[in-house]
Amino acid sequence: MAALNLRFTEEELDALRKRAEAEGRSMQSFAHDAVMAAINEHSRRFDEAADHVLRVSEELNRRLA
């Protein structure tokens, strides 16, 4: 498995530690899941935007074809 080193300020690291502890999880697990959630959210928003553009331009695309 590949690894990635991230740099945090002391304040950020403290906040990460507190959130992970509050959920009863390791900092690594919490950070991993947060990154994956951000990736998935970005993909979801991109797909939503693409669907919207296709819907609103459907008639124009039909006429141009």
Automatic annotation (TrEMBL):
Q: Which Gene3D superfamilies match?
A: Met repressor-like
MF terms from GO for this chain are: DNA binding
Start and end residues of each Arc-like DNA binding domain: 4-42
- One Pfam family it belongs to: Arc
**InterPro entries reported in the protein's UniProt record:** Arc_DNA-bd_dom (IPR005569), Arc_rbn_hlx_hlx (IPR013321), Ribbon_hlx_hlx (IPR010985)
Q: State the protein's name.
A: Antitoxin Phd
Q: What's a single GO BP term from this record?
A: regulation of DNA-templated transcription
